[in-house]
Amino acid sequence: MSAPPALQIREANAHLAAVHRRAAELEARLDAAERTVRAQAECLARHDQQLRAALDELGLAKDREIATLREQLLTAEATVHSLQAAVQQRDSLIGELQPRAQLLQDICCHRPPLARLLATLAEAERLGPLPASDPGGPGPPLANSTREEGNRDHLPPAVFGTTV
């Protein structure tokens, strides 16, 4: 076998050197890409962890708000029941007072005639009894009368007045 010409050896060496450089360049790029991927993976992992923590905090906040709203709902329901009981109690009281109110209204309607009657009776009381009249006067003396004719002499004469 014959030795390859020097030119072929140089070309082969140059080609091997170029392949070696290219392999080293590709390994460097691969290392850089792996570092970038690791950095991105770490960044994504941290971001994922932050998102999970934020999601957990949102879940806790939601649970706290639901608990607060449930408590407010229970308080509101208790208030509604209390107010409904108060309304029922007042309706019952109104039902009890309605006849009395009607009675007072009737009394108020009768008040003016009653006041006139009381004023008239007071005037009659102020005038006093009639003076004693003589037996030959205009008429018989006024006296209280009963159905019994025999007791007519024992009764005192009638006098206007009120017991109020």
Can you characterise this structure?
With 164 residues, this protein is mainly alpha-helical. The protein is 74% helix and 0% strand. The chain has one helix at 6-127.
What is the overall silhouette?
rod-shaped
Rg result: 61 Å
How many helices in DSSP terms? Answer: 1
The unreliable regions are: none
User: What is the chain-wise order of helices and strands?
Assistant: H
Report the average pLDDT across residues: 86
- How widely separated are the two ends? 163 Å
Structural class: mainly alpha
Strand content: under 5%
Question: Sheet with the most strands?
Answer: none
Helix content: over 70%
Q: How many beta-strand runs?
A: 0
Keywords:
1 helix, mainly alpha, 164 residues
Topology:
Blueprint: H1 6-127
